[in-house]
Structures are given as structure tokens and as C-alpha cells.
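Before surveying the methods themselves, it helps to consider a single example record, giving the amino acid sequence and C-alpha cells:
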Amino acid sequence: MANELILVVDDDKDIRELVKYNLEKDGFRVLCAATGEDALATARSQHPELMILDLMLPGIDGLNVCRLLKNDPDTARLPILMLSAKGEEADIVAGLELGADDYVTKPFSPRVLMARVRAVLRKAAPAPDEDSAVLQRHGIRLDPGRREVLVDSQPVELTFTEFSLLQFLLRRPGRVFTRNQIIDGIRGDDYPVTQRAVDVQILSLRRKLGEAGKLVDTVRGVGYRFKE
């Protein structure tokens, strides 16, 4: 897995150097940026395999950097690991809902950070054919390659997490999943998000799907399923 190009974005030079040192020691190539503007420009020109992103940046902050990259088709697939001193649950959920792949709080263990980096890169590896297949059920068409969802031929704009959640349920119609199974399925186990955040995502997904949102069914006391 070594030799991937990783972009480290942090306005604190000491943290940038610490992360850079540990990444290079593990065999990765590293670029650095100190502002949100530099992060966007470097990500778009150099095409790194992963971005490690601080939230509190001068100029464009980390959340907006993440939002801009995930909304750009050219960079939407760039894995982002947020590294921030903002460790409240609301901060973590906000980052993850924008499409970040993981969230590590400061102060951090370099060994844990390197393990998280490797885990994110593994999850970002090219998907098997099953994961890239177009799914069509009850008027909903989901195309993973285009990151596109159509309902009765009309486009529906979903966040990264909403798209992953719909894809997970669509692929297994009729099967009931607990909230923890959903978290594990779309993000991997040890993902730092609460069961309540799953409920929030489901509500938002149903609203955006309109009448088709009724197909995302609540199974009381268990979890959720996509109706057959």
C-alpha cells in the first residue's frame, strides 16, 4: 500500500511536520498545505490518494474544503480523513455527513493515525463489480459510477453519506438492518458516528426521495430496510 500520495492540510507547521514524518516513515509520498485555498488547488492539480484535513484553517475552513471537493465530480472520490481539535459529537457528525471518510481528534497518537490512514486507503480501493453495478428498483435508479440518483427519471441531489446509505439498502431489498449494521456496512466498523446520526440521515434521505421515500421502511425496534 506504500507510495500513495497523501496531502496533509494543517495551518500548524509542527503538526504538518509530525504527520509528514510519520507518513514518509511508512513509505507514503507527502504534499503539504497550510490554507484551505492551497488545499483545494493542490488536490485538484496533484490528485492525491488521500487528504488529511484540519478543520480550523485560515481562509476557507476545513468543512468547506470538504464540501467543495465532495461536490466536484473530479474530486468527489478523494478520501478525506479529518484531523481536528474539535472533538464534540456535533463536529464529528458534521464532518462525516459532508462525506469525510474518518475523523481523528487532536491530540492524537501517530500510530493510531497511521492505522486510520491505512484503513481509509483500503476502503477506497477499487470496488468489486457488485459495488459498481447500476441499481434500479421501484422508479429509483442509482448509478455508483456517476454518483447519480434518479427518481422517476428526475435527478435527486444526495450527500455522500445519503448516497452510500441508499446504495447499501437498495442492494439488499427486504433485508432488515440494525443501525450498527448500517454504520458498519457503509463506513466500516469502528466508525465514530452515533445511531442517532443514522436516524437523521434516514429522515433526510426520505425527504429528498419524495414519495419514493416511503420505500425506506422503519422496522420498529430493529432498524431499517428497503421494501421489496
